[in-house]
Amino acid sequence: MLFEVLDDLVHRRRCASEVVVASRAQLRSLEQRPDPIAVSLDDAALEEARALDGVAPSPSRPLAGVPVLVDARLSDGEGVVARARSLGAVVVGRVWSTTGSGPLPALEDPGVVDESCATRVLDAAVSRVALGAVPLALVPDALGSLRVAAADVGLASVHVRPWVLGDAERLSDGVVAATLSETAWAIDVLRDPEGRGRLLTPFTLGQWRPTRIGVWGRVTPGRARTDEDAVLDEAASALEADGVECIDVDDAFCAPWWSLVEARRALEAIATTQTERTAREVATGIVAAFVAAENAVRAASARVRRVAGEFDALLAPSTVGSSGARTRAGEVVVTDDDTTEVGRVHVANLAKLAATSIPVRRGDRSLGVEFLATSEPRAVAAAACLARRVAPRVLAARAVPW
Question: Is the pTM of this model over 0.70?
């Protein structure tokens, strides 16, 4: 890990130029990582799924006709697979990891950066499950999480979210939820009669609506206003019209991330000018950059813990483009930092949120808004954060299908 390299530098086990080379190599290593997922499809099941494509979901069958890829380790009768079937999903094949990464690890301490944990998260999160135009889903583990690439039925992806800002290859134009039960809340009305996306809250199926929402990302330093900003304002206005209190939380959430991004840029600047600097200057610059990054992460973690408990949910921008496009959730906050090892590790350990992306159509573009449901500080990032917070209120009010 990069901090181990710094330790080598401090104890003179490596020279400064070696540190720079090693740091840059590790920053780029994940970009070369091969796709860790293999898929086996059942042609007959695919035809069945295509025949059911477009079936209107209902409260009892919110996944009606949605094709599902099941983790190869799970049997058809196993809990999460049976639940997917009972909610209307069609199992069209099996998926497994080619890297032996195992199930998603728990992310216990947002203040600790652990390289092996983050690497396993990256492998297990499955960033590429999109086969042509066929809508697919993934049920990866016993947590009940699944992934859907289903633009034809109004979904882009329903998938594991071990962190909020690190999903760099998400499909667009649809709902994103963290778990199967969260999906049942989110998939109430996928399209209006004319086939256009609607602005939805992820709470409608559970007959529960948030009363106080934090709005994150209305103002980002150094960035011109875009259509995504207009969508965010539109979403906040729609919620306010429904009586939901919307409060800006940019200061609490964005400032630490910009510090982290600036630290990354400082490292890049040091690395690209290493031949023009003395060993001591290079070493000092690297240490300063990573100390700043670590401080930024700790500050962000503290702010998240403090602010998260004050709201029912968070509203944040999502860079959602046309159907099938590869976009980066939270790009306006983290810029390119989530494509690096440092960025991914920090994001994976920091984020204690689960996201639901809501499609909003403006003209010929499909934009999106994310509702980030807050969790308790000790909750693991891959768990059903939204369900944990909302379920007690919902279950007290009425019976739900799962």
Answer: no
| Mean pLDDT, residues 85-98 taken together | 66
Report the length, in residues, of the chain. 402
136-139 sheet: strands from edge to edge:
37-41, 90-97, 67-71, 136-139, 147-149
- At 91 the pLDDT is 74
Question: In the chain, what are the domain boundaries?
Answer: 33-249+311-397
Return left, alpha or beta for 67; rule: phi > 0 is left, psi -120 to 50 is alpha, else beta: beta
State pLDDT tens for residues 224-253: 666 556 656 666 676 677 677 877 766 655
Q: At residue 278, what is the residue type?
A: T
Give me Rg for the CA atoms of the chain.
21
Collapse the DSSP code of 100 into the 3-class scheme (helix H, G, I; strand E, B; otherwise coil) and give the result: coil
pLDDT reported for residue 282 = 59
Residue 376 has a CB neighbour count (10 Å cut-off) of 12
Cα dihedral across residues 94, 50, 147, 185: positive or negative: negative
- As beta bridge partners, residue 360 has 367
Beta-carbon-side half-sphere exposure of residue 37 (alpha carbons within 13 Å): 20
